[in-house]
Write a structure and sequence with these properties.
Strand order of the largest sheet: 2-3-4-11-6-9-12
Order of helices and strands: EEEEEEEEEEEEEEEEEEEEE
Number of helices: 0
Structural class: mainly beta
Strand content: over 45%
Shape: globular
Oligomer: single chain
């Protein structure tokens, strides 16, 4: 049983014109053999895009394969286009799941009409390989009551068995119980919370193993993202 705090200030980062990315895990040139992933979760990036004066604010077309790519938009709007023919503007409070399967190309850039954009993107190992690429988009209820399955579980379909993304928008003093699953990645996207005496500020994450049902209480208005897994890492 473990409770491990990962401070947002300790994340590696990459800054290019129009984009700032903070990495929760080892990523690309930011190699950290002690922080490769957490169960099937192999990437958890926090991106801020600013289209002001940038030719491309975000990610121009690039390939992926054998990944489940989950994006949750926190602010602004993200323009997604991919080689399956899908093209959508994903506004704040909406999620998208891109199952790369046997191979896909896509781009993700800020919508200039909406100004700056912030989103969190997770990559997960799929349960089956060589599947047909697919795309789906959805949103959380406008006023969710506690933690809500956004992806996996009762949310959007996900090709990683036993994985789900839950989101809560908490008012000051509001508390929620975390899931009973044996492994969880708890991320304070905004605000500040107390997790049974452990303080999390915006950008901080806690990874729980064998610690089901803990309580999170918001110290200020907070958007909380929880990846929950049916199996321990």
């Amino acid at each position: 049983m473990t409770v491990a705090l990962y401070a947002g200030s300790d994340r590696s980062s990459e800054a290019v014109k129009g984009r700032l990315t903070r990495h929760s895990f080892s990523f690309g040139p930011h190699y950290d053999p002690a922080n490769i992933g957490f169960g099937p979760l192999v990437c958890h990036n926090d991106d801020v895009l600013d289209p002001t004066g940038a030719a491309v604010a975000g990610y121009a077309e690039h390939p992926h394969a054998e990944l489940e790519i989950v994006t949750w938009v926190l602010e602004g709007a993200l323009v997604h286009t991919d080689s399956t023919g899908e093209s959508h503007v994903v506004e704040a409070g909406r999620a998208q799941v891109l199952s790369a399967g046997s191979g896909i190309r896509h781009s993700e850039v800020a919508d200039p009409a909406s100004g700056s954009c912030r989103f969190v993107q997770a990559w997960l190992a799929p349960s089956a390989s060589g599947t047909t690429p697919s795309y789906v988009i959805g949103e959380a209820p406008s006023a969710p009551d506690g933690l809500v399955d956004v992806v996996g579980g009762d949310g959007l379909p996900l090709g990683t068995d036993g994985a789900r993304l839950l989101v809560a928008r908490l008012g000051r003093g509001q508390a929620v119980a975390l899931p009973d699953d044996p492994a969880q990645h708890v991320f304070a996207a905004t605000g500040a919370v107390d997790l049974d005496g452990l303080a999390l500020r915006a950008g901080d994450a806690v990874r729980l193993t064998g610690e089901p049902g803990r309580t999170v209480r918001a110290e200020e208005p907070t958007e909380l993202l929880v990846w929950s897994f049916a199996r321990q890492p």
